[in-house]
């Protein structure tokens, strides 16, 4: 009877240790940077500070992520307005070429 109780306690301790190790290991595998799991088709009207493209890699979906003062917005890259915003952003942020050649 005593042996059985010792065995049950040992088993309980082993289960607790295994669950702590499993939880700690699972924390290391979490995505460090949140990703878009769905996209919006609603147009972003705030001024865009920057943007980045996100590839599809489940659970993340393909998206254009616009950054504004209000935060980040996950947008459908297939929407015409998204393509225009990206094009407009590049047009307004591309530096004007200058010449270093003097006359």
From TrEMBL:
SUPFAM superfamilies, per the entry: Interleukin 8-like chemokines (SSF54117)
Tagged with keyword Signal: yes
Source organism: Cyprinus carpio carpio
Domain (Chemokine interleukin-8-like) ranges: 32-89
Official protein name in the record: Chemokine (C-C motif) ligand 34b, duplicate 1
UniProt keyword annotations, A-Z: Cytokine, Signal
Signal peptide: 1-26
GO cellular component labels: extracellular space
GO MF annotation, one: chemokine activity
Keyword field contains Ubl conjugation: no
Gene3D superfamilies, per database record: 2.40.50.40
GO BP annotations, alphabetical order: immune response
UniProt xrefs under InterPro entries: Chemokine_IL8-like_dom, Interleukin_8-like_sf
Xref: Pfam families: IL8
